[in-house]
């Protein structure tokens, strides 16, 4: 938590603002007082910021291409995508991304997909189910990597070049919410297990308990996300986000 927020071009030193946890070290060192005092070489920071924007733009294009190719390539070519995505996971881990919630999400998704295939088609199509599970994982991994390694203001500035500012804000917020969603799923799941819901791994072996998983986890998660989106919309309105067509981004615009 840091102090200060830009509001319609003015700086309020008393108002708190949330700092992006994935912000770079240079962003954390940059303050308004240091720029005004001349202690920071603004041209050098601007040049470095442009370089970071180019890298962010390439990361966005790369993640889109990689996610799209998961359903376009043949089953024999999936091994190449697996190798590339493993490199992305290692890179995100080096950037202090949490891997355990991601692996839990993939494990739950794999168990549900394999269970449905076994329930409807028997064991004769489990190989096809494994390929489907792998493709879904390869679609989700690039977006998770992008959200874990790129800052929100960099993605917003890049998307503003090709999208209206409002759409860029929505897309950036949605991408950055991916880690938050996994955290919410885990918290809701643990709370419901403490309340006695039959949604443990042992209970979910019985397909009759799957409806309880939807009722106890997915519905509360949907309500929580709707509430969060309402708070984000109110925050944007209070900052007069819809008043100007061209928006600034901190730090460096």
Characterize the structure shown.
With 253 residues, this protein is mainly alpha-helical. Helix content is 66%, strand content 6%. It is built from 10 helices and 2 strands; from the N terminus they run ββαααααααααα. It has helices at residues 25-29, 32-37, 42-69, 78-94, 100-121, 126-149, 152-159, 165-176, 178-194, 210-238; strands at 2-7, 10-17. It has a two-stranded antiparallel sheet with strand order 1-2. The longest helix has 29 residues, at 210-238. Mean pLDDT is 77; it is low at 1-37.
Ends: how far apart?
22 Å
- Extract low-pLDDT stretches: 1-37
How would you write the strand order of the largest sheet? 1-2
| Major sheet details | 2 strands, antiparallel
* Percentage of residues assigned to helices: 55-70%
Q: Outline, from the CA principal axes?
A: globular
Beta content:
5-15%
Say how many strands there are: 2
SSE order: EEHHHHHHHHHH
Structural class: mainly alpha
The radius of gyration is: 22 Å
Q: For the residues shown, what is the average pLDDT?
A: 77
- The number of helical runs is 10
Keywords:
253 residues, globular, 6% strand, mainly alpha
Summarize it.
By secondary structure, this protein is mostly helical. The protein has ten helices and two strands. The chain is globular.
């Amino acid at each position: 938590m840091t102090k200060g927020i830009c509001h319609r071009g003015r700086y309020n030193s008393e108002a708190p603002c949330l700092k992006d946890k994935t912000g770079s070290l240079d962003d954390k060192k940059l303050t308004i007082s240091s720029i005004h005092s001349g202690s920071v070489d603004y041209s050098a920071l601007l040049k470095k910021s442009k370089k970071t924007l180019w890298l962010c733009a390439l990361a966005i294009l790369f993640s889109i291409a990689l996610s799209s190719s998961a359903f376009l390539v043949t089953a024999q070519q999936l091994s190449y995508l697996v190798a590339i995505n493993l490199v992305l996971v290692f890179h995100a881990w080096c950037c202090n991304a949490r891997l355990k919630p991601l692996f839990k999400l993939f494990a739950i998704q794999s168990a549900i997909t394999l269970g449905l295939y076994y329930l409807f088609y028997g064991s004769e199509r489990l190989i096809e189910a494994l390929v489907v599970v792998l493709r879904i994982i390869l679609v989700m991994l690039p977006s998770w990597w992008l959200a874990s390694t790129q800052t929100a203001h960099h993605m917003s500035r890049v998307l503003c070049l090709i999208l209206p500012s409002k759409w860029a804000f929505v897309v950036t917020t949605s991408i950055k919410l991916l880690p938050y969603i996994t955290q919410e799923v885990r918290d809701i799941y643990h709370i419901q297990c403490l309340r006695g819901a039959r949604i443990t791994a042992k209970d979910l072996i019985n397909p009759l308990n799957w409806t309880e998983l939807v009722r106890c986890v997915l519905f509360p998660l949907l309500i929580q996300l709707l509430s969060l989106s309402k708070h984000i919309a109110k925050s944007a309105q209070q900052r007069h986000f819809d008043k100007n067509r061209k928006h600034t981004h901190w730090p460096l615009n």
